[in-house]
User: Fold this.
Amino acid sequence: MNTLLVDLGNTRIKWAQLRGSALGPQKAVPVGDWLAFERALRRLRRIDAVLGVCVAGAANERALRIALQRCALPRPRFVRSSAALAGVTNGYRNALQLGADRWVAAIGAWHLSGRRAVCAVSVGTALTIDVVDASGQHRGGLIAPGPALMVHSLLRDTHGIAKRAALLPGRRVSRGARGTAIRPLADNTRDAIELGSLTAAAGLIDRTINAVRTAMGTRPRVLLTGGGAAPVAPLLTSQHVPCEELVLQGLAVIAGESVAQRSPSRRRA
Assistant:
């Protein structure tokens, strides 16, 4: 069974092929670049099914369906948030309010951790944290702006900061000697914004992990994913494991369980 897995997020379309139980290389193009996506699709070998998750709105979901149809690929099945799936129980009072990408990533994280307590941290347009305990119970999560969105908000919604950040490095407002800033502090406005946003993200992650460890009485395994994760990782004090595209990993788990449920041997058992 060859399945195309698609994660249609806020900024990127990410995909990978699942051949049997082997997840292939993960690729991405910006959301809206459907021509590039279609060119990539036409290079794929035989695809039996398409499984996706979309948080980019109905218009992009329709565009994905059209792109797949134009490439003569199967109609996609989209994963929606549910009360329970693949051994994980949704911890939201209203299961549908949990973003489908977070839901799928939490499932992927729990299975990758060997069904142990896990904290799935995704740093992208938004920074999300979701915790699943060893029993598969989702214990809740957090959402905050990602570092890039924090930077964008400051540059968009302030005048003085944005003006100073636009100055060239040779025209810094600060008159102090170069190299005198105390780490992790910056000596110019642009770096102060970017480093401040990264530090805020890392601080939120560390604080949450410490609170979860105290509440659960165990240290959860921390899986760090997302397009904005790399610059945050060095600022973390919590032990963590980089994990490429947890959403696609979760889709692979869900696709595998769907195949198992349809197999003749499972139906006879």
Notes: Residues 170-177 have pLDDT under 50 and may be disordered. Residues 12 and 31 are 5 Å apart (CA to CA). The radius of gyration is 21 Å. The longest helix spans residues 189-216.
